[in-house]
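Entry 14. Structure prediction run on the chain below.
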Amino acid sequence: MHDTFLIYPSYFPPKKGKMHKKFLPFIFLIACLLYSACKNSEIKSNYPEVLRFGVSTLEEDPEQARYRMKGMKAYLEKELGIEVEIHEVSGYATIIEALKSKKLDICSLGSFSYILAAQSANVEAISCRGTLNGRPEPYHGVLITSPSSGLKSIDDVKKNASGLTLAFGDPASTSGHLIPRAYLETIGLTNNKFKQTFFTNSHSTTFFTVRSGKTDIGCVSESTINKLIKEGRVKRNEFVVLWKSDPIINSAIGIRKDLDIGFKLEVQKALADFRFKDPANWKKYGVLIAKQTILPYDSLCLINAHDSMFNELRQLSGRYNLLRQKR
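Output returned:
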Protein backbone atom coordinates (compact mmCIF):
# COMPACT_ATOMS: atom_id res chain seq x y z
CA MET A 1 0.00 0.00 0.00
CA HIS A 2 2.70 2.54 1.03
CA ASP A 3 5.03 1.57 -1.84
CA THR A 4 2.24 2.28 -4.31
CA PHE A 5 1.62 5.73 -2.83
CA LEU A 6 5.28 6.77 -2.63
CA ILE A 7 5.82 6.14 -6.33
CA TYR A 8 3.65 9.11 -7.35
CA PRO A 9 5.85 12.08 -6.24
CA SER A 10 8.77 10.81 -8.37
CA TYR A 11 6.81 11.59 -11.52
CA PHE A 12 6.93 15.33 -10.77
CA PRO A 13 10.23 17.24 -10.42
CA PRO A 14 10.26 18.58 -6.83
CA LYS A 15 11.68 22.01 -7.81
CA LYS A 16 8.94 22.92 -10.28
CA GLY A 17 6.64 24.26 -7.60
CA LYS A 18 3.68 25.32 -9.70
CA MET A 19 3.42 22.06 -11.60
CA HIS A 20 3.91 20.06 -8.40
CA LYS A 21 1.20 21.97 -6.49
CA LYS A 22 -1.16 21.72 -9.42
CA PHE A 23 -1.17 17.93 -9.23
CA LEU A 24 -1.14 17.59 -5.43
CA PRO A 25 -4.96 17.34 -5.14
CA PHE A 26 -4.94 14.66 -7.81
CA ILE A 27 -2.21 12.75 -6.00
CA PHE A 28 -4.10 13.04 -2.72
CA LEU A 29 -7.32 11.78 -4.33
CA ILE A 30 -5.55 8.77 -5.85
CA ALA A 31 -3.93 8.00 -2.52
CA CYS A 32 -7.27 8.15 -0.72
CA LEU A 33 -8.90 5.88 -3.28
CA LEU A 34 -6.08 3.37 -3.04
CA TYR A 35 -6.20 3.46 0.75
CA SER A 36 -9.95 2.99 0.73
CA ALA A 37 -9.67 0.08 -1.69
CA CYS A 38 -7.02 -1.59 0.44
CA LYS A 39 -9.04 -0.98 3.59
CA ASN A 40 -12.18 -2.43 2.04
CA SER A 41 -10.18 -5.41 0.83
CA GLU A 42 -8.83 -5.89 4.35
CA ILE A 43 -12.37 -5.73 5.81
CA LYS A 44 -13.77 -8.13 3.22
CA SER A 45 -10.99 -10.59 3.99
CA ASN A 46 -12.59 -11.01 7.44
CA TYR A 47 -15.91 -11.97 5.90
CA PRO A 48 -16.81 -15.64 5.43
CA GLU A 49 -16.63 -17.02 1.89
CA VAL A 50 -19.97 -18.77 2.43
CA LEU A 51 -22.90 -17.85 4.68
CA ARG A 52 -24.60 -21.02 5.97
CA PHE A 53 -28.25 -20.24 6.75
CA GLY A 54 -30.21 -22.78 8.80
CA VAL A 55 -33.98 -23.16 8.60
CA SER A 56 -36.20 -25.60 10.47
CA THR A 57 -38.61 -27.51 8.25
CA LEU A 58 -40.36 -29.25 11.13
CA GLU A 59 -43.52 -27.17 10.80
CA GLU A 60 -43.38 -26.70 7.04
CA ASP A 61 -43.45 -28.76 3.89
CA PRO A 62 -39.80 -29.08 2.77
CA GLU A 63 -40.67 -28.08 -0.80
CA GLN A 64 -42.39 -24.94 0.43
CA ALA A 65 -39.40 -24.15 2.67
CA ARG A 66 -37.03 -24.52 -0.29
CA TYR A 67 -39.18 -22.21 -2.39
CA ARG A 68 -39.30 -19.38 0.14
CA MET A 69 -35.63 -19.72 1.13
CA LYS A 70 -34.69 -19.62 -2.55
CA GLY A 71 -35.80 -15.99 -2.49
CA MET A 72 -33.73 -15.26 0.61
CA LYS A 73 -30.66 -16.96 -0.89
CA ALA A 74 -30.85 -15.06 -4.19
CA TYR A 75 -31.27 -11.72 -2.45
CA LEU A 76 -28.52 -12.16 0.13
CA GLU A 77 -26.02 -13.42 -2.43
CA LYS A 78 -26.59 -10.31 -4.51
CA GLU A 79 -26.40 -7.94 -1.53
CA LEU A 80 -23.46 -9.53 0.28
CA GLY A 81 -21.47 -10.69 -2.71
CA ILE A 82 -20.83 -14.15 -1.23
CA GLU A 83 -22.36 -17.58 -1.61
CA VAL A 84 -25.30 -18.41 0.65
CA GLU A 85 -26.07 -22.04 1.51
CA ILE A 86 -29.50 -23.00 2.86
CA HIS A 87 -29.38 -25.87 5.35
CA GLU A 88 -32.67 -27.59 6.17
CA VAL A 89 -32.76 -28.78 9.77
CA SER A 90 -35.45 -30.70 11.61
CA GLY A 91 -36.13 -28.98 14.92
CA TYR A 92 -34.63 -26.17 16.96
CA ALA A 93 -32.44 -28.40 19.13
CA THR A 94 -30.57 -29.57 16.02
CA ILE A 95 -30.13 -25.98 14.84
CA ILE A 96 -28.71 -24.92 18.20
CA GLU A 97 -26.21 -27.78 18.17
CA ALA A 98 -25.18 -26.87 14.61
CA LEU A 99 -24.61 -23.26 15.67
CA LYS A 100 -22.62 -24.39 18.69
CA SER A 101 -20.32 -26.52 16.52
CA LYS A 102 -20.06 -23.69 13.93
CA LYS A 103 -21.67 -25.75 11.18
CA LEU A 104 -24.18 -22.92 10.71
CA ASP A 105 -23.60 -19.15 10.72
CA ILE A 106 -27.13 -17.74 10.83
CA CYS A 107 -30.64 -19.11 11.26
CA SER A 108 -34.28 -18.46 12.04
CA LEU A 109 -35.17 -19.32 15.63
CA GLY A 110 -38.31 -19.24 17.72
CA SER A 111 -38.19 -16.77 20.61
CA PHE A 112 -37.39 -19.31 23.33
CA SER A 113 -35.03 -21.30 21.12
CA TYR A 114 -33.19 -18.04 20.42
CA ILE A 115 -32.73 -17.52 24.16
CA LEU A 116 -31.32 -21.05 24.42
CA ALA A 117 -29.01 -20.44 21.45
CA ALA A 118 -27.81 -17.13 22.89
CA GLN A 119 -27.03 -18.89 26.16
CA SER A 120 -25.23 -21.94 24.82
CA ALA A 121 -24.23 -21.32 21.20
CA ASN A 122 -22.75 -17.78 21.22
CA VAL A 123 -25.54 -16.34 19.05
CA GLU A 124 -27.03 -12.84 18.94
CA ALA A 125 -30.27 -11.55 17.41
CA ILE A 126 -30.00 -9.19 14.45
CA SER A 127 -33.47 -9.33 12.90
CA CYS A 128 -37.05 -10.38 13.51
CA ARG A 129 -40.39 -10.31 11.76
CA GLY A 130 -42.08 -6.97 12.16
CA THR A 131 -44.48 -4.44 10.73
CA LEU A 132 -43.89 -1.32 8.66
CA ASN A 133 -44.20 0.84 11.78
CA GLY A 134 -40.98 -0.77 13.04
CA ARG A 135 -42.53 -2.93 15.74
CA PRO A 136 -42.06 -6.72 16.13
CA GLU A 137 -44.97 -8.74 14.78
CA PRO A 138 -46.73 -10.37 17.76
CA TYR A 139 -48.23 -13.85 17.91
CA HIS A 140 -49.94 -16.01 20.53
CA GLY A 141 -49.85 -19.42 22.11
CA VAL A 142 -53.13 -21.24 22.79
CA LEU A 143 -54.35 -24.19 24.81
CA ILE A 144 -56.77 -26.25 22.75
CA THR A 145 -58.99 -29.27 23.18
CA SER A 146 -61.37 -31.30 21.06
CA PRO A 147 -65.10 -30.45 21.17
CA SER A 148 -65.69 -34.06 22.18
CA SER A 149 -63.52 -33.76 25.34
CA GLY A 150 -66.28 -31.99 27.24
CA LEU A 151 -63.83 -29.35 28.46
CA LYS A 152 -65.21 -25.83 28.08
CA SER A 153 -62.86 -23.68 30.16
CA ILE A 154 -59.66 -23.57 32.19
CA ASP A 155 -61.76 -24.18 35.31
CA ASP A 156 -62.78 -27.51 33.79
CA VAL A 157 -59.09 -28.30 33.24
CA LYS A 158 -58.27 -27.48 36.88
CA LYS A 159 -61.08 -29.68 38.17
CA ASN A 160 -60.14 -32.67 36.00
CA ALA A 161 -56.35 -32.29 35.62
CA SER A 162 -55.44 -35.57 37.32
CA GLY A 163 -57.30 -37.46 34.62
CA LEU A 164 -56.10 -35.41 31.64
CA THR A 165 -53.19 -35.77 29.23
CA LEU A 166 -51.33 -32.64 28.10
CA ALA A 167 -49.21 -32.32 24.95
CA PHE A 168 -46.47 -29.71 24.52
CA GLY A 169 -44.75 -29.05 21.20
CA ASP A 170 -40.98 -28.72 20.83
CA PRO A 171 -39.16 -28.33 24.19
CA ALA A 172 -37.52 -25.18 22.75
CA SER A 173 -40.81 -23.71 21.56
CA THR A 174 -42.09 -20.45 23.02
CA SER A 175 -45.80 -20.79 22.27
CA GLY A 176 -45.83 -24.59 22.35
CA HIS A 177 -44.03 -24.97 25.68
CA LEU A 178 -42.58 -22.00 27.60
CA ILE A 179 -45.54 -19.61 27.65
CA PRO A 180 -48.39 -22.12 28.23
CA ARG A 181 -46.35 -24.03 30.80
CA ALA A 182 -45.59 -20.81 32.68
CA TYR A 183 -49.28 -19.88 32.61
CA LEU A 184 -50.43 -23.28 33.86
CA GLU A 185 -47.95 -23.12 36.73
CA THR A 186 -49.28 -19.71 37.81
CA ILE A 187 -52.68 -21.33 38.36
CA GLY A 188 -51.19 -24.30 40.21
CA LEU A 189 -51.15 -26.76 37.34
CA THR A 190 -47.58 -28.04 37.36
CA ASN A 191 -46.78 -31.00 35.14
CA ASN A 192 -47.25 -33.52 37.96
CA LYS A 193 -50.87 -32.41 38.38
CA PHE A 194 -51.79 -34.02 35.05
CA LYS A 195 -52.23 -37.69 34.32
CA GLN A 196 -49.48 -37.40 31.70
CA THR A 197 -47.49 -34.67 29.91
CA PHE A 198 -45.31 -35.21 26.85
CA PHE A 199 -43.71 -33.48 23.87
CA THR A 200 -44.80 -34.05 20.29
CA ASN A 201 -41.92 -31.88 18.95
CA SER A 202 -44.26 -30.17 16.49
CA HIS A 203 -47.16 -27.69 16.69
CA SER A 204 -49.09 -29.40 13.91
CA THR A 205 -48.57 -32.86 15.45
CA THR A 206 -49.89 -31.51 18.75
CA PHE A 207 -52.96 -30.13 17.02
CA PHE A 208 -53.81 -33.34 15.20
CA THR A 209 -53.15 -35.43 18.31
CA VAL A 210 -55.73 -33.33 20.17
CA ARG A 211 -58.21 -33.35 17.28
CA SER A 212 -58.05 -37.14 17.06
CA GLY A 213 -58.78 -37.45 20.78
CA LYS A 214 -55.47 -39.18 21.55
CA THR A 215 -54.67 -36.44 24.05
CA ASP A 216 -56.97 -34.08 25.95
CA ILE A 217 -55.17 -30.72 25.80
CA GLY A 218 -52.49 -29.32 23.53
CA CYS A 219 -50.20 -26.26 23.55
CA VAL A 220 -50.02 -24.81 20.05
CA SER A 221 -48.97 -21.66 18.25
CA GLU A 222 -52.00 -19.78 16.98
CA SER A 223 -49.96 -19.06 13.84
CA THR A 224 -49.80 -22.79 13.08
CA ILE A 225 -53.58 -23.09 13.37
CA ASN A 226 -54.05 -20.09 11.06
CA LYS A 227 -51.76 -21.75 8.53
CA LEU A 228 -53.59 -25.10 8.73
CA ILE A 229 -56.94 -23.34 8.25
CA LYS A 230 -55.70 -21.36 5.23
CA GLU A 231 -54.38 -24.58 3.70
CA GLY A 232 -57.80 -26.19 4.12
CA ARG A 233 -56.51 -28.91 6.45
CA VAL A 234 -58.45 -27.73 9.50
CA LYS A 235 -61.90 -26.26 10.20
CA ARG A 236 -62.61 -23.88 13.06
CA ASN A 237 -65.29 -26.14 14.54
CA GLU A 238 -62.76 -28.94 15.00
CA PHE A 239 -61.12 -27.45 18.10
CA VAL A 240 -61.91 -25.36 21.17
CA VAL A 241 -59.56 -22.66 22.48
CA LEU A 242 -59.39 -22.85 26.28
CA TRP A 243 -56.82 -20.08 26.75
CA LYS A 244 -54.89 -17.57 24.65
CA SER A 245 -51.63 -15.93 25.71
CA ASP A 246 -50.72 -12.27 25.71
CA PRO A 247 -48.78 -11.16 22.60
CA ILE A 248 -45.34 -12.81 22.24
CA ILE A 249 -42.37 -11.33 20.41
CA ASN A 250 -41.92 -13.22 17.15
CA SER A 251 -39.09 -15.39 15.87
CA ALA A 252 -35.55 -14.03 15.65
CA ILE A 253 -32.85 -14.37 13.04
CA GLY A 254 -29.71 -15.06 15.04
CA ILE A 255 -26.09 -14.94 13.88
CA ARG A 256 -22.87 -16.20 15.44
CA LYS A 257 -21.27 -13.57 17.68
CA ASP A 258 -17.74 -14.45 16.64
CA LEU A 259 -18.25 -13.33 13.03
CA ASP A 260 -16.77 -9.99 11.95
CA ILE A 261 -18.84 -7.09 13.32
CA GLY A 262 -18.79 -5.26 9.99
CA PHE A 263 -20.13 -8.35 8.28
CA LYS A 264 -22.89 -8.79 10.87
CA LEU A 265 -23.99 -5.19 10.41
CA GLU A 266 -24.03 -5.68 6.64
CA VAL A 267 -26.21 -8.78 6.99
CA GLN A 268 -28.54 -6.94 9.38
CA LYS A 269 -28.96 -4.05 6.95
CA ALA A 270 -29.55 -6.44 4.05
CA LEU A 271 -32.34 -8.21 5.97
CA ALA A 272 -34.00 -4.90 6.89
CA ASP A 273 -33.86 -3.81 3.23
CA PHE A 274 -35.12 -7.12 1.84
CA ARG A 275 -38.79 -6.24 1.40
CA PHE A 276 -38.00 -2.87 -0.16
CA LYS A 277 -35.02 -3.66 -2.41
CA ASP A 278 -36.19 -6.99 -3.85
CA PRO A 279 -40.01 -7.29 -3.80
CA ALA A 280 -40.01 -10.35 -6.10
CA ASN A 281 -37.78 -12.48 -3.88
CA TRP A 282 -39.40 -11.07 -0.74
CA LYS A 283 -42.73 -12.36 -2.02
CA LYS A 284 -41.26 -15.87 -2.28
CA TYR A 285 -39.92 -15.63 1.25
CA GLY A 286 -43.16 -14.16 2.59
CA VAL A 287 -45.38 -17.04 1.50
CA LEU A 288 -45.22 -18.68 4.93
CA ILE A 289 -45.62 -15.38 6.75
CA ALA A 290 -48.78 -14.63 4.77
CA LYS A 291 -50.25 -17.98 5.81
CA GLN A 292 -49.44 -17.63 9.49
CA THR A 293 -50.30 -14.04 10.28
CA ILE A 294 -53.66 -12.35 10.72
CA LEU A 295 -52.07 -9.07 9.60
CA PRO A 296 -52.18 -7.99 5.95
CA TYR A 297 -49.18 -9.35 4.05
CA ASP A 298 -48.24 -5.91 2.74
CA SER A 299 -47.77 -4.61 6.29
CA LEU A 300 -44.96 -7.05 7.13
CA CYS A 301 -41.18 -6.83 6.82
CA LEU A 302 -37.99 -7.74 8.67
CA ILE A 303 -36.81 -5.25 11.30
CA ASN A 304 -33.58 -4.87 13.25
CA ALA A 305 -33.54 -6.83 16.50
CA HIS A 306 -31.24 -6.96 19.50
CA ASP A 307 -30.80 -9.37 22.39
CA SER A 308 -32.48 -7.17 25.03
CA MET A 309 -35.80 -7.48 23.18
CA PHE A 310 -35.98 -11.04 24.54
CA ASN A 311 -35.18 -10.21 28.18
CA GLU A 312 -38.79 -10.56 29.36
CA LEU A 313 -38.98 -14.09 27.97
CA ARG A 314 -35.52 -14.82 29.35
CA GLN A 315 -36.61 -13.81 32.85
CA LEU A 316 -39.75 -15.90 32.55
CA SER A 317 -37.85 -19.01 31.48
CA GLY A 318 -35.37 -18.47 34.30
CA ARG A 319 -38.20 -18.20 36.81
CA TYR A 320 -39.38 -21.69 35.87
CA ASN A 321 -35.86 -23.12 35.61
CA LEU A 322 -36.37 -23.94 31.94
CA LEU A 323 -33.01 -22.50 30.91
CA ARG A 324 -31.26 -24.64 33.49
CA GLN A 325 -33.11 -27.72 32.30
CA LYS A 326 -32.11 -27.17 28.67
CA ARG A 327 -28.35 -26.71 29.22
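Confidence is low (pLDDT under 50) at residues 1-16, 35-43.
Filed with the rest of this week's runs.
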